[in-house]
Amino acid sequence: xxxxxxxxxxxxxxxxxxxxxxxxxxxxxxxxxxxxxxxxxxxxxxxxxxxxxxxxxxxxxxxxxxxxxxxxxxxxxxxxxxxxxxxxxxxxxxxxxxxxxxxxxxxxxxxxxxxxxxxxxxxxxxxxxxxxxxxxxxxxxxxxxxxxxxxxxxxxxxxxxxxxxxxxxxxxxxxxxxxxxxxxxxxxxxxxxxxxxxxxxxxxxxxxxxxxxxxxxxxxxxxxxxxxxxxxxxxxxxxxxxxxxxxxxxxxxxxxxxxxxxxxxxxxxxxxxxxxxxxxxxxxxxxxxxxxxxxxxxxxxxxxxxxxxxxxxxxxxxxxxxxxxxxxxxxxxxxxxxxxxxxxxxxxxxxxxxxxxxxxxxxxxxxxxxxxxxxxxxx
Length: 379
Ligand SMILES: [Zn+2]
Ligand SMILES: [Zn+2]
What we know:
Elements (H helix, E strand, L loop, with lengths): L6 H5 L7 H15 L8 H17 L2 H10 L21 H6 L3 H5 L3 H7 L6 E7 L2 H5 L1 E12 L14 E3 L8 E8 L2 E8 L8 E3 L11 E12 L8 E4 L16 E7 L6 E3 L2 E8 L1 H6 L1 E5 L7 E5 L8 E4 L15 E7 L7 H14 L6 H13 L1
Parallel strand pairs: 1-9, 11-15
Antiparallel strand pairs: 2-7, 3-6, 4-5, 8-9, 10-11, 12-13, 14-15
Helix pairs in contact: 2-3
The structure holds zinc ion (2 copies).
One zinc ion binds next to loops.
């Protein structure tokens, strides 16, 4: 699969582009790649769809904010449903006329109802020792989150009778208006300026939250990290995010991204653990058994066969990390390294030199031996 392009790049706009810029960029690109203008051009068709998708996301306030925070790798499935974006039929006339706003908002129709009433999602990064990848963990973090104000029970008013429905938006919190952009008319929805989108006016605002009904509070959150977890995994804590703006809404979600510290010697390949084991010449030649403390609490016993070579790999099955969603575990893969001493005492030199009489350090036929070695490596 090819890497998905950044939506801002697709539309050729900067990350702080205004709604007007987004619409303008979309309108001009959509006209350029429109199928009516590019019949039977698969490349243009692809571009047309790509431009539509970018516009659908960036022209929607909530989807744009989500995309700005998480990029394409956002939590949950695609906002367009499991099949991803399928493109929409939009005529050249519609592109000129500007009546396409609703076409794209249809995708978020269901979330649009919730939209006003869901609080913000939060993301926290949480670093854990390597051991957690083996055992999992019960952890706790402290987060700063917008919660319902305790002093006014979320009403924003010192006195419950001091709250009345905003007359400007009749309590909806939003106002719709028709905007003229040159020759085009566009319907736009925005937060009501009189009540800041809350739909109510407060005569005597609560002092703790300035009438917002919500205030930043410190919360401790407990959560469970499953064994076998990898770096980059995001745990989703439903409704632990920001409080919604209106009373009937639901809080946003909290995402905790797990970062696992490095192990002093293991590298990780999903559930497998890889390590290098330095051993002496005689261990390789004669074979031996080496015990190493292991992260599952039981020593790892490495049996090195006589005549082993540097670079040989020994696999110990079932002693790697737990495979998520299964009772099985990965392997420990041990690569043998020849640990040659850099300095030798006079006595050691004498002993080794007598050894070389046995093993042979003859340089005769050296070319043949080099050739054999090369052949072995190529096979
Ligand atoms: Zn309050
Ligand atoms: Zn209002």
